[in-house]
Specification:
The chain is an alpha+beta fold. The chain is 20% helix and 36% strand. The chain has seven helices and ten strands. The protein has a ten-stranded antiparallel beta sheet. A hairpin with a 2-residue loop joins β9 and β10. The longest helix has 16 residues. The chain is globular, with a radius of gyration of 18 Å.
Length: 276
């Protein structure tokens, strides 16, 4: 795949308080514990924006990538996602997003495409998102198999988790989450999901990551802000299934988590950092 170094954008992304509340509902915010994320009157500055809300801006960059690389959405799987959160977005605002393809790896039967998204507003950089995309049938082009500079995945502590959080998704969870920008039909159309090799539509990976991020931020407490989150998607979550996040604090500002659904790991160890 000859797309290494490809730059896409900038794409402008705008949102309102309604979008912030809708996103929070999409990642499983519930009453009464999540009232600040769901009610504009719960704080002086409007609703509290969910920790991973900036990922809605990165979502805008998938259609340009599909078009530029001439990808078939049925062959595309979201493999990894990381985000560095430099500031918490306002409840209403606008930003621009630019995507750069930073790696293309030959996995044999597939290609793995690495992307970096720079997200900024009028006040400067807002977030940096990094993602990898598995493109079935695009391998075998003779390129390197993997990034030699990539770090080894983290290992979970051999002790009981410090916090365990469970969220019951609804059968409509994917239909709700797609209103935050990801309209990929594989998450709502049964025929498209079957063509992609799944028995039925499944939850967006970013929705599952958002559920984990919200739970970890809640566990950290109101005085702490999530500053980074990263994980590798390993299995799908189906709307209506529970999502369980087990959290281990590994330092004052760091944590690891295991995210499972129906007893199956769905995100490989999640890494998170926090700040005051």
């Amino acid at each position: 795949m000859d797309i290494l170094g490809l730059q896409l954008g900038p794409v402008r992304h705008t949102w309102t308080e309604r979008d912030a509340i809708l996103y929070a509902l999409g990642i499983g915010a519930r009453l009464p514990e999540d009232l600040p994320f769901l009610y504009e009157g719960a704080g002086a500055d409007g609703p509290l924006v969910a920790p991973t809300f900036a990922l809605t801006a990165a979502t805008r960059m998938l259609p340009p990538l599909i078009e530029a690389a001439r990808l078939d959405v049925r062959t595309l799987l979201h493999a990894t996602q990381a985000i560095e959160l430099l500031r918490r977005p306002a409840p209403e605002g606008a930003c621009s997003v630019t995507r750069t393809v930073t790696g293309v790896w030959d996995k044999g039967r597939a290609a793995l495409v690495d992307c970096v998204d720079a997200i900024g507003d009028d006040d400067g950089p807002l977030a940096v998102a990094r993602s990898s995309w598995w493109v079935e049938g695009a391998g075998g082009f003779g390129g390197p198999r993997s990034d030699p500079s990539a770090s080894a995945p983290p290992v979970l502590p051999e002790r009981r988790p410090d916090v365990t959080l469970a969220v019951a998704t609804t059968p409509e969870q994917a239909a709700l989450y797609r209103l935050s920008g990801d309209r990929n039909p594989v998450h709502i159309d049964p025929e498209v999901a079957r063509a992609a090799g799944q028995p039925r539509p499944f939850l967006h990976g970013l929705c599952t990551l958002g559920i984990a991020g919200l739970g970890m931020a809640r566990a950290a407490g109101a005085g702490r802000r999530l500053t980074s989150l990263a994980g590798r998607f390993t299995s799908p979550v189906f709307p209506g299934d529970d999502v369980t996040t087990e959290v281990w604090w590994t330092g004052e500002d760091t944590a690891l988590a295991r995210v499972t659904s129906a007893g199956t790991p769905v995100i490989a160890p999640v890494q998170a950092t926090f700040a005051d």
